[in-house]
Specification:
Subunit structure: Homodimer.
Helix content: 25-40%
Strand order of the largest sheet: 7-6-8-9-10-11
CATH class of the largest domain: Alpha Beta
CATH topology of the largest domain: Rossmann fold
Bound molecules: nicotinamide-adenine-dinucleotide, 4-phospho-D-erythronate
Pathway: Cofactor biosynthesis; pyridoxine 5'-phosphate biosynthesis; pyridoxine 5'-phosphate from D-erythrose 4-phosphate: step 2/5
Mean pLDDT: 97
Binding site for NAD(+): 147, 176, 207-209, 232, 257
InterPro entries: D-isomer_DH_CS1, D-isomer_DH_NAD-bd, Erythronate-4-P_DHase, Erythronate-4-P_DHase_dimer, NAD(P)-bd_dom_sf, PdxB_dimer_sf
Order of helices and strands: EHEEHEHEHEHEHHEHEHEEHHEHHHEHE
Binding site for substrate: 45, 67
Shape: globular
Number of helices: 15
Strand content: 5-15%
Distance between the termini: 44 Å
Length: 370
């Protein structure tokens, strides 16, 4: 069995050693000839999997993407070829939530906000959006939720339509897939018209897909009146609209989901799916492979409260580190270098908080407490 995997997929050899022979490739530059012999193709978000890429391969049985997003996969073509497919739903959802929380804490410090006085509009309330809503609610921060598809399916879902959310939110955070057609497209969901509807001070956070915001329109709006802005994703990555950078409070290279756990969970999910497809029993689990975190346990007292969470979270992750890396290296080393050399970052759950009375809401933020 020949397995071809993106070179930026962690632990792929460890997971797939017993399944077949693993060959690594550059996901950004992969060609049809390079992948012609693959029985199993494992990609990340930077590889367009479509007819031109698979034209020379007649033996492919399975394509897996170790990501949540699937906008780089031509599902109709895979269906036509009868090639099985899997993504890794939810694999890095917690990582993205931690990125957004860290960004909110950073903005709150910079602009001296009391976050509990701010209403956060969450657009797209799936794995990431719903976890974020739970975390913010646990922190007593009001939220508005916008997800028309959920509203259609779930009568008890409290939906705020996008136009009203734009008018009411103090902070708006995008967590939709990139959808170019259908009833609820998200390409350029935040366009010049919607930007004009936002409160002038409304902060914008995008950790979904770059094209969910019209980047040229965003730049034009920022040049007229600057609002707080956090961008992890950009249109036309890796050749992004660099003039936007001075107008960002936080700018990063599509790494919101790149926690150690988030990336590794993606590989594990594809491994499990492949084993199922091939009818073999999985022998490797993620817990066997994850490195021991630098700090494993922290004793907290009965005085531990909401204001202390930020200090503990900072031990694990501060988005300002990634913003500094981005500003320092984007012009010299480029977008993909920043992603490839991303420093290890553990999720909140890697740190066990122990104490007589650990508050229940810590779990809502993703901490491991007992
Ligand atoms: N920056 C990163 O590193 C990173 C990491 C993971 C995922 N992502 C992106 O985030 C997206 C969301 O991830 P998820 O795990 O929450 O996905 P999900 O599929 O669980 O949830 C997406 C939600 O968006 C909703 N939605 C679709 N169209 C909408 C619209 N027009 N308006 C409002 N809501 C809409 C869907 O109904 C769904 O509930 C992914 O598709 C991916 O593109 C980015
Ligand atoms: O959709 C996702 O899961 C994320 O955008 C993912 O973290 C992207 O990372 P990449 O595959 O590009 O390394």
């Amino acid at each position: 069995m020949k397995i071809f995997a993106d070179e930026n997929m962690p632990l792929v050899r460890e997971f797939f050693a017993d399944v077949g022979e693993v060959t690594l490739f550059n996901g950004r530059t992969a060609t049809a000839s390079e992948l012609a012999e693959a029985d199993i193709l494992l990609v990340r978000s930077v590889t367009q999997v479509d007819e031109p890429l698979l034209a020379k391969n007649t033996r492919l049985r399975f394509v897996g993407t170790a990501t949540i997003g699937m906008d780089h996969i031509d599902l109709a073509y895979l269906g036509k070829r009868n090639i099985a497919f899997s993504s890794a739903p939810g694999c890095n959802a917690q990582s993205v939530v931690e990125y957004v929380l860290s960004s909110l804490w950073c903005l709150a410090e910079r602009y001296q906000w009391q976050l509990s006085n701010k209403t956060v509009g969450i657009v797209g309330v799936g794995s990431i959006g719903s976890r974020l809503a739970a975390a913010l609610t646990a922190m007593q921060i009001p939220v508005l939720l916008c997800d028309p598809l959920r509203a259609e399916q779930q009568s008890d879902f409290v939906h705020t339509d996008f136009t009203s959310l734009c008018q009411q939110a103090d902070i708006i955070s995008f967590h939709t897939p990139l959808v170019k057609a259908g009833s609820y497209p998200t390409k350029h969901l935040l366009n010049s018209e919607c930007l004009a509807r936002l409160k002038p001070s409304c902060a914008v956070i995008n950790a979904s897909r770059g094209a969910v915001i019209d980047n040229a329109a965003l730049l034009a709006a920022q040049q007229i009146q600057r609002r707080p802005l956090v961008l992890d994703v950009w249109e036309q990555e890796p050749d992004i609209l660099l003039p936007l950078l001075p107008y960002c409070d936080i700018a990063t290279a599509h790494i919101a989901g790149h926690s150690v756990e988030g990336k590794a969970r993606g590989t594990e999910m594809l491994y499990q799916r492949c084993c199922q497809l091939l009818g073999i029993a999985p022998t490797v689990t993620l817990s066997q492979l994850l490195p021991v975190p630098a700090v494993e346990k922290l004793q907290i007292s009965a005085n531990f409260g909401l204001p202390d969470v930020q200090s503990v979270a900072r031990m694990l992750y501060d988005v300002q580190r990634d913003d500094a890396l981005f500003r320092h290296h984007i012009e010299g080393k480029g977008f993909d270098w920043l992603r490839k050399s991303y420093p290890a970052r553990r999720e909140f759950s890697a740190l066990q908080l122990v104490g007589q009375a650990t508050p229940a809401w810590l779990g809502q933020l993703g901490f491991n407490s007992q």
